[in-house]
Queue: 3 jobs
Job 1
Amino acid sequence: MRTILIASILLGACASKSDAAPSSPEPAAPAEPAAPAEPATPTDAAEQPEPAEKQPEPALGDVLAVVTAQGSAKIFTELLGLSDAAKGLHSMDGSGYTLLVPTDAAFAKLPKGTLERLKKHTAELDRVIKYHMVLGTNDVNKLTNFRTAPTAEGHDLEVKVSQDTDVLIQGAKLVETDLKASNGYVHLIDKVLLPKK
């Protein structure tokens, strides 16, 4: 009897184990797909750099403003301020202006007393200023098409291109060219042009 009881207990224990679900390990939850990598550029529009757009170059101003900005043309700038002929250089009327501007080094080559005389005699100064004004808007390419360039003073200037491609106007060499203004061009020259009396 005791043996039957033990056997039935053992059988019951086995049966309860076989009824239970097998204790296999639960399958791992499927891995979530990895989140796509964040783009290298920030998503915040405020932080995102603007695309590089070619901005139009700011206007440099009229020919007087361009001359005034030249550190090597202080004497001519001063003379323009004393001359009545320079007042029209602010204007946008007509076909524009081409100004030949002697450098300060060019004025240093003048005979002694010439500069002081020009400052005192405004009529003579006006002629000299107008002699440096070529009619029309002429970059260096247009200037080299002239044999003689007409000036506001009334007399023409001889234009030559030397073999080493230097451009000479009435014997003055262009040392800096095509300084663009809103109403013309400025070219720096290495000699002061004095009209014939």
Job 2
Amino acid sequence: MIHRGGTAQKLRQTLLKHNVRRFLFIGHADASAPGGPRTLGFASEDGRTMTIAPNDELARMFGASAKANGGQLELVFLNGCRSE
């Protein structure tokens, strides 16, 4: 399954709905999280860049997906501009 664009909420819903084994993110990684480090950037419905919660929220999102799908998540690859 390939998604282009979308919001963090749509990603969260997709991860919980489908048995995701491998996840590749290619996009912005220089969005500013309030009071925290740069994080992944998602597109809003009107095309503006909006951010997801800090990186620990990403970890919880993928952890919830793995738990909901019987631990099938085996690879998460995040590739974005200005990422470390």
Job 3
Amino acid sequence: RDRMTNPEPDNGKTRDELVQRIALMETMIAEGRKSTVRYGWIFVLWGLIDLAPVGWQLVVPHSRWVMNWSWPIAIACGVAIQFIVMTILRRRSGVVCSSNMRGRSMSAVWSMMGLTAMLYFAGAMIEHKTWQISFIAAMLMFVGMAHGTSAVILRWWAQGLVAGVWLAGGVAMFFVPVDYWLAIFVAEMCFGMIGFGLYAMWLERHDAGMVQPHA
């Protein structure tokens, strides 16, 4: 009875302090989601960038030059476009990066995923291994891992669903016939990259002074 009526728990934290901490955690989660949806355009950009060389190769199927250089050219263009757009946005807003821990965590997750994928792709391209099923599956799982990590940190089931789609696509690559590889890759880019990016952009536009994306 004394413990129930005593406003000071054993650990020295009052009920109000605990409530404030929970509220602070919810605010940090909301800010982390906000930092993700703010860069929804990046998902759209890279979805289109990844589809561009596929379309290029389908249009010119017998060109060895296109086969060898379509991906490096597309990725170089993507990096340049992202750098230019982010520079413009930062100058307009005056914001360099998110100031809260979860926002920085999101930036770290996606930055390291991007760096890892770039190094992996460069090594496979130099050794002409990009045609192998393990290469394609690993690329899909890299993105799925980043989405999954972000979803767990932000407690965002919508992004967790996207992570599941990416991981499922990576696993499926080992079991489906070769004829379906391209279809899986295109579906992943359309739904898991462009679709999620458009959804994030819609959330940002819908909740201009967003407190928390309800997804």
